[in-house]
Design brief:
Elements: H1 8-52, H2 61-95, E1 103-110, E2 116-121, E3 128-133, E4 138-142, E5 148-152, E6 159-164, E7 170-175, E8 180-184, E9 199-200, E10 226-227, E11 232-234, E12 241-246, E13 252-257, E14 262-266, E15 272-276, E16 283-288, E17 294-299, E18 304-311, E19 314-320, E20 327-332, E21 337-342, E22 346-351, E23 360-363, E24 372-373, E25 380-383, E26 389-392, E27 398-401, E28 414-420, E29 427-432, E30 436-442, H3 444-450
Parallel strand pairs: 5-10
Antiparallel strand pairs: 1-9, 1-30, 2-3, 3-4, 4-5, 6-7, 7-8, 8-11, 12-13, 13-14, 14-15, 16-17, 17-18, 18-19, 20-21, 21-22, 22-23, 24-25, 25-26, 26-27, 28-29, 29-30
Helix pairs in contact: 1-2
């Protein structure tokens, strides 16, 4: 420790914490020895009782039930003791982070009748949240009040993605009915309500297993305006359209399908401009660059591809093989980076100027679904199969985990995340198989200070 570069105060704090850990495990060890002695004593008494039963087998009948009950009680006692002790250890770490609320529950958006695959926030006023669901509908929501404002019911299959036009009140949805739709909307925001007084630190380890999976309060949106006819239908695919996005400027869109192709369309005429082929298996996602004519597509073939449309006469493509399982999404950042997530439980950050190897790799304990990166702070939000949502910076340093307890958080797989950084605030939206979307207010200054 004499060569340590750590400040003395930080070293002393670490030594104190590790000392607390050692004492907690020492207490656990002593309690474990005592419990073992109790078990041995019980076994001896049970064996003696078994000998008094004429012709009885100490492993059968009532004696077995008694032994099982006693062992179960001891097992439960051991679990309770261990959980209480480890909770003290975790609490000692949490105490060092202070009492600031890093993540505050903004609103829950409940109304879909099936899992929500995707969500997005409008880029124009009024700012609303859009969700795409397996119940064949897309819904628009008031972010502040959680009220459903409009329903799109033009698709005949699951709505797999939703993206909003950069300057006009138009939405682009992709569906299992093998089409993508462009449709116009008009909404009027209700009067805002006082914010809920609900906050929690970002590393809430409580589980929500006491609530039934898929159980959601509410019976769906009340009667709201419904749009049933799109302004344009894009229908050149031969399989499920899993995702779609607007190219910069909003005059063209790209779609990704399970038919292994991505298609580029003209919005005004709905005509197919290019079929982007080359993936060996179904596509899982597509994303466009915010300022350049670049498209990235991801696939079950473990690769993602970068398509360059900046030169009208040349449409180049580059293939990247950084994952060992399905690439569930790959997205551009405002800078010159691509971030890819995979079922191989990793997220990789790439530099567009040198894509030979990732500049950062994030390893997780669960498959990663549709990720998003905040534009201003460049924070990566990872939705997981195990219901967690974790936040990382671009260098791969973990910043926080969203609360997941009996009071808040998703109860089933989290499918997608989306950021909104308007009006000096930073909101993160998540959605999942539990049929709800959730809005969070992220305290960015406190988050970065914790880092």
């Amino acid at each position: 420790m004499e060569d340590s570069k750590l400040p003395l105060s930080l070293r002393n704090n670490l030594l104190d914490l590790f000392g607390q850990i050692e004492r907690e495990f020492e207490n656990l060890y002593i309690e474990n020895l005592e419990l073992r002695r109790e078990i041995d004593s019980l076994n001896e008494r049970l064996t003696g009782d078994g000998q008094t039963i004429e012709g009885g087998d100490p492993t059968k009948g009532a004696l077995k039930t008694k032994a099982s009950h006693s062992t179960s009680q001891l097992s439960q006692k051991l679990k309770t003791t261990y959980k209480a002790s480890t909770s003290k250890i975790v609490s000692s770490f949490k105490a060092t982070t202070g009492s600031r609320a890093l993540c505050q529950l903004l609103k829950e958006y409940v109304g879909h009748r099936d899992g929500i695959w995707d969500l997005s926030v409008t880029r124009t006023q009024p700012v609303v949240l859009g969700t795409a669901s397996a119940d064949h509908s897309a819904l628009l929501w008031s972010i502040e009040t959680g009220k459903c404002l409009l329903r799109y019911a033009g698709h005949a299959g699951s709505v797999n993605s939703i993206k909003f036009h950069p300057t006009e009140q138009m939405a682009l949805t992709a569906s299992g009915d093998q089409t993508a739709h462009i449709w116009r909307y008009m909404v009027q925001l209700p009067a805002p309500q006082p914010p809920p007084d609900v906050s929690a630190p970002c590393d809430d380890d409580q589980d929500s297993s006491d609530r039934e999976e898929g159980e959601v309060d509410g019976e769906g949106p009340c009667e709201v305006p419904t749009v049933r006819v799109p302004t344009a239908t894009l229908k050149s695919h031969q399989g499920v359209v899993i995702a779609a996005d607007w190219l910069v400027g909003g005059r063209q869109v790209v779609t990704a399908s399970w038919d292994r192709a991505a298609n580029l369309y003209e919005v005004e005429t709905s005509e197919l401009v290019h079929a982007l082929t080359g993936h060996d298996q179904e596509l899982t996602h597509c994303c466009t660059h915010p300022t350049q004519r670049l498209v990235v597509t991801s696939s079950r073939d473990t690769t993602f591809r970068l398509w360059d449309f900046r030169d009208p006469s040349i449409h180049s493509v580059n293939v990247f093989q950084g994952h060992t399982d399905t690439v569930t999404s790959a997205v551009f950042t405002v800078g010159d980076n691509v971030v890819s997530g995979s079922d191989d439980r990793t997220v990789k950050v790439w530099d567009l100027k040198n894509m030979r190897s990732p500049i950062a790799t994030i390893r997780t304990d669960s498959a990663v679904n549709r990720i998003s990166v905040s534009a201003n702070q460049r924070i990566i939000a990872l939705p997981h199969d195990n219901r967690q949502v974790r936040l990382f910076d671009m260098s791969g340093v973990r910043l926080a985990r969203l609360p997941r307890s009996n009071r808040m958080g998703h109860r089933r797989m989290v499918c997608c995340t989306a950021w909104n950084e308007e009006n000096q605030s930073c909101n993160l939206f998540t959605c999942g198989f539990d049929r709800q979307a959730i809005g969070w207010n992220i305290n960015i200054p406190a988050l970065l200070q914790e880092k």
